[in-house]
Amino acid sequence: MESFLSIFLIAVALAVALNVLLKRFNIPTIIGYIATGAVIAQVFDLHGNADLTHVAEFGIVFLMFTIGLEFSIKHLIAMKKEVFVNGFLQVAISGGIYSLGAQYVFGIEQKSAIIIGFALALSSTAIVLKVLNDSGDIHTTYGRKSLGILLFQDIAVIPLLLMITIFAAETTSISTLLQETVVSATIVLLLLFVVGKYLLNHLLLHVVATDSEETFVATILFLVIGASYLAHAFGFTYSLGAFVAGMMIAETKFKYQIEADLIPFRDLLLGLFFITVGLQVDVAVLAAYWEVIFGVIVAVMVIKAVIIFGILRVVQNRRIALQTAISISQVGEFSLAVFELARANAIIPPQMAQVLIMMVVVSMLLTPLILRHVRWIADILAPATFADEYRVVSSEVKNHIVVCGYGKLGQEIVYRLKKRSIPYLVIEHDISLVQLGRARNEPVFFGNASHKSILEAASVGTSAAVIVAVHNEHKLRLICEAIKGFKASVNLVVRVADFEEKKLIESLEVGHIVNEGRETAKALIHEALQCRMEKS
Q1: What is the DSSP pairing of strand 465-468 with strand 492-496?
Q2: What is the pTM of this model?
Q3: Looking at domain 393-535, what is its CATH homologous superfamily?
Q4: Residue extents of the structural domains in the chain
Q5: In this structure, are residues 118 and 98 in contact, taking their beta carbons and an 8 Å threshold?
Q6: Half-sphere exposure of 225 (CA within 13 A, CB side)
Q7: pLDDT tens for each residue of 28-43
């Protein structure tokens, strides 16, 4: 116990110190966590500690749950092309090419080559989604394309693990294994669907009625871990169960409170997960095979990027296809689990498994640096002719604030919303202001707020309120007319410059009007009277 505590304290201290240092150079915290794991592994000889890895896996579980909260079942159906067409083509083509390369270029036995090839086709859900969430790019077109392919990859882990079982099993027939998997999947989905549709709302209502925050959090933790355990008990990944549970809860009115309560757990466990990735670093293997490791990983990432670009270029413009391809070109965390299971079942030799694991770790280590420069790379290879990557896409959010305008007033509104942890997104038609907002990691999207399609994409109909903070009288009127045209009742808060502008907007029956000149005068007189009182 004492040795574990000392290792834990050293790891936390080192992670904090590294991340404080790296932040000065604008390097993502993920790098600090992985570096911490690598140092701890060398000092305490903890390479691939199994117990720590199992605990850390729940970082991905909570990440997938919170991603699931972003999706209702209707939303997933709406994304069916991104998930089931783009995702399937990417995994099938990439996995096939890598498998053939492993077999004919490196002379690896066919069964082993198939497992290796399709494991390399998987990308890093944990890193990509964390960076996209932090930057707000998850709501852009390329962010949604990336998410769709990543979701299919998570589903593809199931047949891949099944393949390992089939290749390792000498007595059980393939048809029996397939039948058992289909039955298990049906049972899991039915159970989660029944609980989500008929029991979840009633359960959460009773829990909320206790007026106990810790009981509410404990209930949510039970639901997340319970759904993950149920999926794992039937032979699927923990994260897939968590994602389905998130989708079920996304249908309830408690979605945003749950998301706010779970974010600290998610981020802490994700940090632990990235530390365990660092534990996989074996300096001896890296030194002995560094040419092979770096050479193969560059080839794998380039081939995967070219395949994804080719798939998306058919229906997307060049820039979005390129950004998506670059974002998910790496090899991911589920590949580590696949290689470890394949080694345990004697499908891959131990030394080869260690080289493959090092390839994955190096790939994941490079990913945050690549993701931070996606736009820079896209600017060089596919200059934007229009602000496509800044367009807001339908996010199915509710009870958020939509801010129209990111001028000085809009920036002040965003600052105050962020301080209160209120969900929001901004629509701005000036591309320079959009770029300013994105440089600050704000969810600022390009679009003309007087267009109904842009407002629909921002989920105005389900928003808590829309704040119009533009200074152009003509634009102000057009935006208000567009919002008042919605069938759903929208709470509209409008800033006007003076009495004349107020009269213009009042004719639209806007409920909440703030007269900037009047409010400024009140504030100035209040301050002046305070000065007078202090002087007397």
Answers
A1: parallel
A2: 0.67
A3: NAD(P)-binding Rossmann-like Domain (3.40.50.720)
A4: 2-381, 393-535
A5: yes
A6: 14
A7: 777 788 888 888 887 8
